[in-house]
Design a protein that fits this description.
Elements: H1 10-22, H2 31-43, H3 47-51, E1 58-61, E2 64-70, E3 77-81, H4 84-96, H5 110-124, H6 133-147, H7 152-159, H8 164-171, H9 175-184
Antiparallel strand pairs: 1-2, 2-3
Helix pairs in contact: 1-2, 1-5, 2-4, 2-6, 6-7, 7-8
Amino acid sequence: MNKKTTCITDEQFDAIINLLYKGNGKIKPNKEMALILTVTGNCGLRIGDCLKLTMNSFIKHGNDCYYNIKEEKTGKTRSTLIPSQIYNMVIAYAVGRNKLPNDYIFDTNIRTLQWKIQQVCKCLGDGYENISTHSFRKHAGMTIYRESGNDIELTRRFLNHSSINITQRYLRVDEEDINTILKDKYRIPFAG
């Protein structure tokens, strides 16, 4: 049976990242993987694109910083703000490992990340099934969707999807969700 990757909750995000960062008796700490998933879970990058980040992937504009990449899956160019605290963590990580401007910042691969996530989720127990690296991108999309007041078009642009239908399927936003929103979100200026 084909299992769908789930979108993780904020609590699951925190639990997975903290366990990767700190470790416990069963899981060794892996700060690199914790940082990779933090970037993906906040910025909405696909994991393959995140693993190809270099210091030259970032563009400073005043006090803001953007990552500028060509997405591997779509071939589309994407330039999106990266929160300054996350940018600073990534750059500090790269500098601490003597990375040159065109070197990949991270030294792992998708298979290793997937394996480690499976181990972490197994350790965390029930409620952590069907979680993969892609769950973190979905988390970023769902956060944008929720924080924007369920603005599906804004979320579509953030995820760089080609249509709203893809974003709806991706986030599992269905007609019932849309109808619930529409029942309360309407505007009639002339009603008194």
